[in-house]
Amino acid sequence: MAGLYFEAFYVGQVFQHAIRRTVSEMDNVMFSALTHNPAALHLDEEYCKHHTEFGQRIVNSVFTLGLIVGVSVGDTTLGTTVANLGWDEVRFPKPLFHGDTVRVETEVLELRESQSRPRNGIVIFAHRGFNQHNELIASCKRSALMLKTPTDVST
After folding, report:
1. Computed over its alpha carbons, how large is the radius of gyration of the chain?
2. 84 beta partners
3. What does the alpha-carbon distance between residue 85 and residue 4 come to, in Å, rounded to a whole number?
4. Degrees (nearest 5) of the Cα angle 94, 25, 43?
5. Domain spans in the chain, listed from the N-terminal domain onward
6. How many angstroms separate the Cα of 38 from the Cα of each of 16, 44, 53, 91, 112?
7. What's the predicted TM-score (pTM) here?
8. How would you write the chain as a 3-class SS string?
9. Average pLDDT of each block of 10 consecutive residues along the chain (155 residues)?
10. 138 and which of 37, 46, 56, 129 could share a cystine (Cβ 3.0–4.6 Å)?
C-alpha cells in the first residue's frame, strides 16, 4: 500500500512529490467540456488575446486543484483514506497556462483523533502547486479522514 496510515504522519512533515505534470491544451479543453464549463477564459483563444490581461487561455482552476491534490495521493493517502472531509482556503495566486509544468509539495498541518470513529484519525494537509518558474499557482488545505494502522484481532 502506497499511502500512509494516520500514525505515520507528523505535524511539519513535508512531501516533495516526484511526479511532475506538463499541462496540455487537451487537458484544459477536455476538462472544461466534461464539467460543462463554457467560460471563454478556458476555451476561446481569440477572446483571451483581445479581452483579458493574460493574452491567452488559462487552465481551468478546478483542474488545477484536482491536479495538485491528485499528485499527492501516491505518497500520502493511496489506499489509506476513508474520505475527504473538505477543502479550505483554496487559492490561485498565479494562472496556469497550456505548456506549464506543475510540481507539488504537501505539508502536514494538523493531526487529531476522530471523536466518532476510533479506527480513524483526521489529517489536515496543505497542498501547494508550483509552475516551472517556481511560482505558486495553487494552494489549499485538505481535511482527510484516514485509516489507523490495522490491529491484529486474531491474537
Report:
1. 18
2. 144
3. 17
4. 80
5. 6-147
6. 34, 9, 19, 21, 41
7. 0.93
8. CCCCCHHHCCCCCEEECCCCEECCHHHHHHHHHHCCCCCHHHHCHHHHHHHCCCCCCCCCHHHHHHHHHHHHHHHHCCCCEEEEEEEEEEECCCCCCCCCEEEEEEEEEEEEECCCCCCEEEEEEEEEEECCCCCEEEEEEEEEEEECCCCCCCC
9. 90 97 97 96 96 96 97 96 96 98 98 94 98 98 96 61
10. 129
Cell 507528523, located at residue: 10
Query: How many residues in total does the chain contain?
Result: 155
The three grid cell numbers given for residue 79, joined into one nine-digit string = 489506499
pLDDT of residue 18: 97
CA distance 145 to 133: 33
Q: How far is CA 101 from CA 104, 137, 153, in A?
A: 10, 11, 46
CATH, domain 6-147, list 3.10.129.10, 3.20.20.10, 3.90.480.20, 1.10.10.10: 3.10.129.10
The C-alpha cell of 53 is what?
490581461
Q: Assess contact for 109 and 126: CB atoms under 8 A.
A: yes
